[in-house]
Amino acid sequence: MPQKGVVALVGRPNVGKSTLFNRLVGRRLAVVSDIAGTTRDRLYADTEWGGVLFTVVDTGGIEVVEGWHTEPLSEDSENFLDSIRNQAKVAIQDADVIVQVVDGRSGMTSADREVANILRTSKKPMIVAANKLDDLHTMRNLMYEFYELGIGEVYPVSAEHGRGTGDLLDVIVDELPQLEDAEEDDSIKIALLGRPNAGKSTLYNKLIGKERTIVSPIAGTTRDAIDTKVKWHGQEFTLIDTAGIRRRGKIDPGIEKYSVIRAMSALRRADVALLLIDATEGITAQDQHIAGMMKDEDAGLIVLVNKWDAVEKDSFTMAEYTDKLRFELNFLPYVPILFISAENGQRVGNVLPLVNDVNEARYRRIPTGELNRYLQNSLAQHPPPGKGGKRMKFFYMTQAGVAPPTFVFFVNKPDWLHFSYERYLENQLREIFQFPGTHIRLVFRGRDEDDRV
After folding, report:
1. Does residue 153 contact residue 127 with C-beta atoms inside 8 Å?
2. Which are the contacts of 259, defined by CB distance < 8 A and separation ≥ 6?
3. Residue 43: its pLDDT value, please?
4. Rounded-to-integer distance, Cα 240 and Cα 204, Å
5. pTM (2 d.p.)
6. Which domains, ranges and CATH numbers included, belong to the chain?
7. d(Cα 181, Cα 161) in Å, to the nearest integer?
8. d(CA 438, CA 361)
9. Share above pLDDT 70 across residues of the chain, in percent, rounded to a whole number
10. What whole-number distance in Å separates Cα of residue 273 and Cα of residue 346?
């Protein structure tokens, strides 16, 4: 499968990064959540320009940093400068193309220079987008002072009105590296994701049976991805630690707030993703954020509740904890939950077998005859909705693909379908055929009565 390049938008607050993000991806996604039950912002999206597919990341909105306000901040705000430094550092490491967004109307600031100083150390392609130049003919001269940043060409844009964004996209596409198709590899690729100190590196080491990554109680110790292959009952697995060995020493505060790009890179390569939750802290908004990213990327998903040995419990604790997790992750009701202790190995032996089951479900194919028996039974139990005294008709269905399993329903009026009935059909499909940890797609296509099979 071809890899997608990553374009990161970096810059100080109030320069219009989110507006530019929405303009580049062609729809309003920033500060909008489209999955019920999540408390996250959509901060990344795939888009296409000139036949090239790539991902745009709005680094500025990944997480609100304490001390940030809606009003413009003073130049000497330490929280402010720390935050933009962290954005720039992560962009250098993980993006393929970096766009520094500046406010063309207000002119250059010390914060813009701070970002540029960090970006200048990178060998990545860099572009400066001088935003808020609503009239490019009369305001174009305002962009020239930003050449002083010394990191790349400056392009005038008005994200709000869309002016100049086509030229910017042309340049972005030209600068994206030619990514090769992934090499043929039959191993099941596993990404380990979770908040700092959830135990990712400890589990990683336990699964490979030897110390490979640095395990440290300091949040953010791991930084770069490391792949390791292991075998279980003849099946090969590739473990992708979403961060790898990091030099010991001072860790910039808040840098983990800008970890979305790294997580996305791992998810894009993964067949199955493991979300580690610290049992002693419980599920957080960031855990929900990561789970939502996993669903968006269509990877198989397993939730591992780590450090279970450190929780005081009785015979009801696990069931109560499971119920709470199901409530907090109600947009992922099909996800298996496993309680482990990576430190002492409790139930770690169950992880790879469960990964294997989830991956098999991602590639499961159901014969058309069985699918249509399921469809007729489901329709009989709960007839479809209708309008104006007429009922929606389902003619037949088939499976169109795998990873994730994709099912196509042929109906007379696709626009009559209510989301609640689609959820009913999915629940019935899961109950009969079982797709643990696996996102499935339902597609509804219109057909005339005369085309009925």
Report:
1. yes
2. 62, 90, 242, 243
3. 67
4. 9
5. 0.67
6. 5-175 (3.40.50.300), 188-362 (3.40.50.300), 368-451 (3.30.300.20)
7. 36
8. 7
9. 77
10. 20
